[in-house]
Design a protein that fits this description.
about 375 residues; six-stranded mixed sheet; 6 helices
Length: about 375
């Protein structure tokens, strides 16, 4: 197995070639240059994919500026046809300028990728490799007419139903992304509902997924929307396990039911999915209230400690999202990286609320490291 990495201020590509299985993975993040519309990123993506041998796009996400992660997931359409795009109307802060900063793509060559259907719509993709079968689901929603708690339980139940049809159970869920409309109004209520579902499926006795929980309205008007990553081993030598944070207590200790990170390891590659991470002390309280620079610094220390605990570093990142509570603080994250001489990273910056009103910054990250040459 070998890797190729190329990074410029606006484009990050990572290529991982699996020697034994023959699969090649391509991670591409394209950020629109300052002053340019996001549609300028689309030709770069097309040009890159055109150089590949029969690529299959496993995942494509917007790199947003204003709460775009929770919007309709047919994201490529938005950046190819601005005339019919209504993202500018999803949040008052976005009106007058496009809130999209670029796009993230995970494509594979030499492996089987097939769509996952639900109710006549594609809700994700399935990737099969010699070692693992992955499900990536996105844009899952409940019925908007239900109470917020019932929507949460119905959403997780729908996840379970899709997994069952694919020969999995909820214990195979490694990562969730949860977008809650008006999150600060009902985060405790959401946690209670998630706990109810987790108890019904004995999740606490198995693998508690890594997760991000941030604000996010959507055009369907539901209280919650989700994306999911699940994986099931197909061969020996595969491990899927929770990873603790060296600098923080388990989130379960203060009532949030997610693991700090989850690692998926095969004989060829190690993948680390780090949950949304913020400036939270070892025993749970918010640290550095009111000081965004200090919160960024502590969060980065926490994420880096998780990476190094698994023999990884910033250079292993393939995707990341930095959530900033106030748009005026967008440059603070970039300034931190510059001051600390960090390498360019495939991290988009999004204005969004996170799970506590006094948290000003949160970072989620995916990392990949090859284990054989």
């Amino acid at each position: 197995m070998n890797e190729h990495l190329a990074v410029t201020p606006d484009v990050s590509t990572r290529t991982i070639r699996h020697t034994h299985s023959g699969m090649t993975e391509h991670f591409l993040t394209v950020l629109a240059p300052p002053g340019h519309p996001p549609i300028d990123a689309a030709p770069q993506i097309d040009a890159y994919l055109a150089t590949l041998d029969s690529p299959a796009v496993l995942r494509m996400d917007i790199v947003g500026e204003v709460n775009t992660e929770s919007c309709d997931k047919h994201q490529q359409h938005y950046c190819y046809d601005c005339s019919s795009c209504d993202l500018n109307q999803t949040r008052p802060e976005a009106k007058g300028s496009c809130p999209v900063a670029g796009m993230y793509v995970h494509a594979v060559c030499g492996a089987s990728v097939s769509p996952i259907w639900l109710g006549g719509q594609i809700v994700g993709n399935e990737l099969t490799t010699p070692h693992l079968r992955y499900l990536l689901l996105h844009g899952l929603q409940p019925e908007a007419s239900l109470s917020r708690s019932d929507q949460t339980i119905q959403l997780f139940t729908r996840m379970q139903d899709i997994l069952t049809r694919k020969g999995m159970t909820f214990e195979h869920v490694a990562r969730t992304w949860l977008y809650l409309d008006k999150i600060l109004d009902w985060y405790d209520e959401f946690n209670d509902a998630r706990d109810t579902f987790f108890k019904s499926q004995s999740v606490f006795e198995k693998l508690v997924p890594a997760s991000t929980g941030v604000g996010g309205s959507n055009r369907s008007g539901t209280a919650i929307q989700a994306s999911v990553l699940a994986a099931i081993p197909l061969a020996d030598g595969v491990t899927i396990e929770a990873v603790p944070s060296p600098l923080q207590c388990p989130a379960l200790d203060y009532g949030s039911s997610f693991s700090r990170a989850v690692e998926i390891r095969t004989p060829e590659v190690q993948r680390l999915y780090i949950s949304g991470t913020a400036s939270i002390e070892q025993d749970g309280p918010t640290l550095h209230v009111g000081d965004v620079d200090a919160q960024i610094a502590y969060t980065m220390d926490v994420v880096h400690a998780i990476l190094t605990s698994r023999d990884m570093d910033w250079s292993d990142l393939t995707r990341g999202v930095a959530y900033v509570k106030h748009r005026k603080d967008f440059d603070r994250f970039t300034d931190y990286c510059t001051r600390n001489n960090l390498p360019p990273m495939p991290v988009g910056i999004v204005q969004n609320d996170v799970c506590r009103d006094d948290l000003l910054f949160e970072l989620e990250a995916d990392a990949v490291r090859t284990l054989t040459t």
